[in-house]
Amino acid sequence: MVVLPEIFLTAFFTVLLEKLASGDLFNLALPKGIHSRLHTWTSKLELLEAVLSSAEEKQITEKPVNMWLQQLQDLAYDLDDLLDKLATEALRRRLMTAQPTQASNPSMFRKLIPAFSPRAVQCDFNISSEIDNITERLENLLKQKSDLNLMSDHLGGTRSRRTGDERPPSTSLVDEYSRFYGRGKDKQAILAQMCLGCESGSDHRFRVIPIVGMGGVGKTTLAQQIYNDEEVKNSFDLNAWICVSDEFDEFAITERIYKAISSERCEFKDLNMVQVKLREIISNKKFLLILDDVWNENYGKWDVLSRPFQVGAPGSTVIVTTRNISVASIMRSVPDYHLDQLEDEEICSILAHHARGWQNFDAHPGFKETGEAIAKKCKGLPLAAKSLGGLLRTKESPNEWKDVLDSKIWDLPTENNDILPVLRLSYHHLPSHLKRLFAYCSLFPKDYEFDKHELVLLWMAEGFLRPSETHREMEDVGFRCFDELLSRSFFQRSKTGAESRFLMHDLVNDLAQHVAGRVCFRLEDKEESNVQHMRVSLLKARHSSFIRHEYDGSQRFEAFSRVRKLRTFLPLPVFKSFIWYNFYLTKQVIYDLLPQLHFLRVLSLSGYKIFQLPNTIGNLKHLRYLNVSGTRIKQLPETVTELYNLQTLLLRDCESLTKLPANTGNLINLRHLDITGTTQLKKMPLGLCKMASLQTLSKIVLGRRLKVNELRGLSNLRGALSIIGLHSVMDAQDAREANLTCKQGLEELEMAWSSDFDDSRNEMIEKEVIELLKPSTNLRRLEVKHYGGVEFPSWLGDPLFSQLAHISLSDCRHCTSLPSLGHLTSLKKLHISGIKGVRTAGNELCGVGWPHVGDAFPSLETLEFVDMVSWEEWSTNLSEDDGNFRQVFPRLRELIIVGCPNLINISLPRLPSILVLKIRDQEEGGNGPTLHDVVDLEGNNLEEH
């Protein structure tokens, strides 16, 4: 049986129906006379939506249904493109009418008059033609659905189980051979959690131990080994193995437990009687129950099933195997046990055993190289090794093994392949909206590490994310969806340790490619020579990706020349810093190919050595995501400001960029503007305050015209913000209007004045400005540079800033005292440099004056003082009158004092955690004081590092 790629449309239809109900769209359609067509489309789509579940059930085994769904999918994309075109035109007209007219500006006046130019007439004719085409295709698909016997959900009753993807039921019998490979430590860890031979010490009458891992990793095998262990058998009075799998039916599962424990037929017909009888049997008996392959996320169902277990003897145990952390979370009474993949050597042994009955390939050189290469393809999954081993039993020669090595897992015969149904089962249990998100990840090559935040931006740009009642922002919806896919083992954390980096197992990547089918096209290097094959593959593709080459010319993208409906043009990698990269993209691609891709939602040119974008970029009206990070562009064309749908504009590390378009404020849907690393960007345009949706604004460069109060309307800002040029603020009330206190999402803030301390600086204004720029107490990192006031703001050191973990105060040369920071309970790193007005530092740094009980600087690990040229004395000797401090710097590990030549006395209490202490002049070998000249640390035994 050929397993067809699945078409998933339920979530897509929800989006289309929402768009058709848009008020702006209706207002545009009314004068054009197409509103009746929109109503007709709504009713027809609702009829088609009603049969989607039936069609998605049948498409696995019925090719005509799959072909019908493919046509419906193409129609859905084309309809979405048309609705987006209409919605964009409605938005353009709304923006134009919102702008003030000027009689003295005839060109502006003409823009506001409805145009009847030949071009406008042609545009209306094209839309009318597209509408006719959509209507005809809708009617044809409605006629075909009856011939295919597709039933509406409300008429068809309950959903049937997908016959092509059922997991074979498991048994408690263990494969004796498998017990010897790779799971010894895992087994011992589970046995330790079971606390064999001792009474339960928890509040629970029975413990639940979840074993969590991706499909095929060996959860069931591990549970079998535990269940059949002699010590385990002797420790329990009753034992039962239940394969739960797809449907969590409380009555059916209780009945099966009763049969397994009592060895009797169950004559009872209702749940109550079965549970009462089961309760009698297990009362005061120590039982072991294995629930294999559980998918239920409904706590109520688990609560009902588990009620009879409450009367078991202490030490009773339920072991649950599941692929979903959410399932484990509603059942567990001890932490989940996450099962990792096996090492290649262990996988190789499993493969050799199932293929030939060998222990390994060492004695069989003809098969060794190929066999070990096939084992690597299994990427640690024992089920893959077992399945491929079974397939290889019929292959007698090394050449036949080589054919298996070179074929994709999905090309292997399904009758001899358990991998496909196991992984597809995980996929089928996904909600419809997650299926679409997962399939999109097929754009990533195998072993590709992607960034969580970047992926969410791409999902959002493609229109996959919709605000919900609990998560109003699309980004929050995206992160929640990502975490759900992670919890279901579709993603894995990168082994590099980077918090936001993830990847997919190779077989999961194959699954993503399979379910995405023709919609996603990944340009592989080995396919580039076959232009005709690529053209066929791209014919219906909507999303494309490729790995950047050192030189990407028009020949590489020749197959793209006839593609018109592509939504994604994505070179990889996406997220790296490209400062040192020199990838070349020819002008033919930029000026000839890309402007023809009118339906692009995602366009990335990041990392290419390009110097400008064409004016025609403004014609890509559907564009939501534009990434030109790491390029050599000096400025963006003004037509970029006509991309009214743009949500994400990434200009990171564009070191040559000198300015942004004058009308950047017209991008009212922009949510993320990343201009980190744009060192030549010295001024920014007015109108930023209009971009009320903006969440990421990495920096704002103030000037003579651009005031800090441009931030007033940006209440949704998140993450990091640098405010550059604060010396230009002449009216402190502008700082008050910036309203930083209410920007709850800001976690990192940089405040920077000019490094030129000339006569134009006003210390009083600067003191008032920094006072009024008080940020939200959610701040985690703060940097203050070149501040010209004589004292720091009163809010700096307020204990309410309990999340501040990093503070840097640099070149605030006129300040005469240090701020009181000792009450900041989360502060881990404090850097102070260039504060030339400070001569002495005493107890005020610890926070004397603030009400406090506890340690001063309780979390501080690194303390740095640099270039404090006037600093002479640092003494911290707290008395009872200084507050209720128990200890100062209890966790300080590094104390670094550099370039403080006049510091002649340091007197500190004992530092119990200090590891690194460095005190020296700015220049190595200087004549300043040494460690032993200036330090009195109350008995600290340290050497200078």
From TrEMBL:
Gene3D superfamilies: 1.20.5.4130, Helical domain of apoptotic protease-activating factors, P-loop containing nucleotide triphosphate hydrolases, Ribonuclease Inhibitor, Winged helix-like DNA-binding domain superfamily/Winged helix DNA-binding domain. Residues 709-834 form the R13L1/DRL21-like LRR repeat region domain. Residues 152-171 are annotated as: Disordered. Keywords: ATP-binding, Leucine-rich repeat, Nucleotide-binding, Plant defense, Repeat, Signal. InterPro entries: Apaf_helical, LRR_dom_sf, LRR_R13L1-DRL21, NB-ARC, P-loop_NTPase, Rx_N, WH-like_DNA-bd_sf, WHD_DRP. One of its GO terms (molecular function) is ATP binding. Residues 443-512 form the Disease resistance protein winged helix domain. Residues 1-23 form the signal peptide. One of its GO terms (biological process) is defense response to virus. Residues 13-102 form the Disease resistance N-terminal domain. The keyword Lipid metabolism does not apply. Residues 206-352 form the NB-ARC domain. Belongs to the disease resistance NB-LRR family. This is Disease resistance RPP13-like protein 1. The lineage of its organism: Eukaryota, Viridiplantae, Streptophyta, Embryophyta, Tracheophyta.
